[in-house]
């Protein structure tokens, strides 16, 4: 029987592990299919406090993992397939093992929804293709970039990128935005933004060094194919939270994000179950905000364990 199990090893899960371990709770961290989370695919992180020269994503998460292990966190290389959360003892099942815990912190993150076109994976993470303007926009100062999408997220990404890029081209498969009117109007009025309506990307094209040089696009009405030269390709068509394994055990919204109606932002409707990071947060989605949620989740779990079970009292 564990006091705390944390599912996920991104900034949220690993920060929760640090706080739980320092409270002598000996948390068990289940690493999942991508140890370190999405941040490990980022070549350079410039906006995490404490690293004035920046740090690559893998090194950052590896450092946090080592810090958690130093205080006594345990790690298991496993993938949880189903859970039973309603009782005082939470039961987690993988393909070959069953885990029991008094508290659970879910920090499984979310994965960006990708297009599935040629060149996308090859140039993803440091070579031109990205899913986060806030993370990577500053790398494209004075360059032309492309954003694909038509909702609020795409408009927000495009507007943010105008701070750095010389030009932002939005590709949208329809002839009007799905975004809110205020976001759409603001986007259309910006002199750095050009919108290509009824247009879909077909392939990301590389230069001799393997970095992006252009995107081949198709007009869905005329069928005409052309190339748009750009150094950055920002995909803003949504994210998929990694929550399917929870089944009906915990409330989620219509998109699968775990719901927290508590002021802390990390309590779920199930006593002893907490959430942190991008599997719940579909607004900020930053390493630092995920880390903050992990901290809150661990402290909440510690207090619950003391009040209900006398752990650490």
TrEMBL record:
Its EC number is 1.8.1.9. Residues 3-294 form the FAD/NAD(P)-binding domain. Its cofactor is FAD. The keyword Protein biosynthesis does not apply. The keyword Flavoprotein applies. It holds the Pfam family Pyr_redox_2. One of its GO terms (molecular function) is thioredoxin-disulfide reductase (NADPH) activity. InterPro entries: FAD/NAD-bd_sf, FAD/NAD-binding_dom, Ferredoxin-NADP_redctase_2, Pyr_nucl-diS_OxRdtase_2_AS, Thioredox_Rdtase. Binds 1 FAD per subunit. Keywords: Disulfide bond, FAD, Flavoprotein, NADP, Oxidoreductase, Redox-active center. It is an enzyme of class 1 (oxidoreductase). SUPFAM superfamilies: FAD/NAD(P)-binding domain. One of its GO terms (biological process) is removal of superoxide radicals. One of its GO terms (cellular component) is cytoplasm. Transmembrane segments: none annotated. It catalyses: [thioredoxin]-dithiol + NADP(+) = [thioredoxin]-disulfide + NADPH + H(+). Belongs to the class-II pyridine nucleotide-disulfide oxidoreductase family. Homodimer. This is Thioredoxin reductase. It comes from Ruficoccus amylovorans.
């Amino acid at each position: 029987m564990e006091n705390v199990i944390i599912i996920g090893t991104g900034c949220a899960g690993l920060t929760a592990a640090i706080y739980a371990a320092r409270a002598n709770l000996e948390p068990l961290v289940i690493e999942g299919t991508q140890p370190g989370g999405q941040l490990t695919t980022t070549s350079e992180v410039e906006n995490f406090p404490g690293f004035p020269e920046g740090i690559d994503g893998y090194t950052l998460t590896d450092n946090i993992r080592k810090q958690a292990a130093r205080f006594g966190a345990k790690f298991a290389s496993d993938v949880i397939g189903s859970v039973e959360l309603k009782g005082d003892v939470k039961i987690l099942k993988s393909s070959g093992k069953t885990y029991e815990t008094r508290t659970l912190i879910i920090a499984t993150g979310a994965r960006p929804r990708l297009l599935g076109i040629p060149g996308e994976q090859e140039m993803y993470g440091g070579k031109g293709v990205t899913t986060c303007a806030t993370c990577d926009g500053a790398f494209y100062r004075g360059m032309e970039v492309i954003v694909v999408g038509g909702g609020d997220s795409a408009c927000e990404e495009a507007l943010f990128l105008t701070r750095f890029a010389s030009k932002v081209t939005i590709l949208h498969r329809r002839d009007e935005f799905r975004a809110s009117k205020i976001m759409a109007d603001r986007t259309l009025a910006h002199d750095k933004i050009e919108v290509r309506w009824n247009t879909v990307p077909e392939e990301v094209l590389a230069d001799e060094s393997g970095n992006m040089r252009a995107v081949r696009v198709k007009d869905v009405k005329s069928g005409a194919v052309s190339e748009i030269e750009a150094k950055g390709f920002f995909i803003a068509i949504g994210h998929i939270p990694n929550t399917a394994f929870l089944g009906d055990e915990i409330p989620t919204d219509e998109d699968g994000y775990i719901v927290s109606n508590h002021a802390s932002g990390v309590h779920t409707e199930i006593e002893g179950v907490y959430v942190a990071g991008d599997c719940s947060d579909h607004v900020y989605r930053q390493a630092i905000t995920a880390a903050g949620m992990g901290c809150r989740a661990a402290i909440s779990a510690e207090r619950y364990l003391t009040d209900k079970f006398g752990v650490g009292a």
